[in-house]
Design a protein that fits this description.
Blueprint: H1 8-57, H2 60-86, H3 94-103, H4 108-121, H5 125-128, H6 133-140, H7 142-155, H8 163-201, H9 205-234, H10 246-279, H11 283-313
Amino acid sequence: MSVGGINPQYFRLCLKRISHASSTTHRSRGEETQLKDAVATKKIIVNIANVWRDIEKKNLPLATAGIAYYLLLSLFPALTVLSAVLSYLPVQNGLREATSVLGYVIPLQVMKPIEELLKRITPHRAALLSFGLLTTLWLASIGFKGLILGLDMVHGSNTQRPLWVSRILALALTVAVGVLLLIGVILTSIGPSLWAHLSRLMPTESLWLRLAPYLKWSVSALVLFSAIELLYVVGPSIPVSKRVTIPGAAAATVIWLMLAWGLGFYFHHFGELKFARFFGFLAAPALFMTWLYCSAAAVLLGAEINSRMRTVED
């Protein structure tokens, strides 16, 4: 019997077919999503394996050790210039603010010898700079010279810059990263005074005490990311149109921060005592060189990620 001219059995059959078609569509969409996820996961695994193979193929661990040595050689002149420049900034306790910015991206156990070295340099900075600020900057740029050579190894660059161009580029990068650090110092130093003015309008002192560590950490992370990104943009001798920089800079920054926290935790709870027992009076230099090696490895690993992404795009 039909109701309103519609056969009930035919109506139920139509509903059943519609329901079956809908469930089939949902199932096919779900299978398509799973397939896409599987393909994406496979690509990630393949790229990680390719990055690891390239690291061994290009002898990047050996390059990392060389860069760590270059960074060690450039440390004393760099700290000399930093101490001299901070003395002319309109910032109270500029040296303390600088070590505060660095303290969020360098393990505490590594910051201790740096702070001791800064304390010894500061009273004699005028004499240390007597043979010329440019000469001191030139010596401080040795570390960036090593990083530039390492980036060329990562990208497999066949085009070598003239020696004088590489040295001027390393000097320019040294100045640029120093300016980034000074900007970070200024940003962290104006925070308390800014909140002091705001506290006159509203009670924000307790809020500042809670937010200050996170804001300072953010400034340090931003300075670190900007310095690595600048290095990736300017450093390697490959065509600008073929450069991929931001993904590797972000990865290198994350790896650097994780290493800073992880090594700090390890040194504090386990490693510092073991280093002291094994290396004796050389424990502090060995610990310091370990951090320099890890930081150079983070920079080269980020560059290798960029190189792999550039290869995939080509």
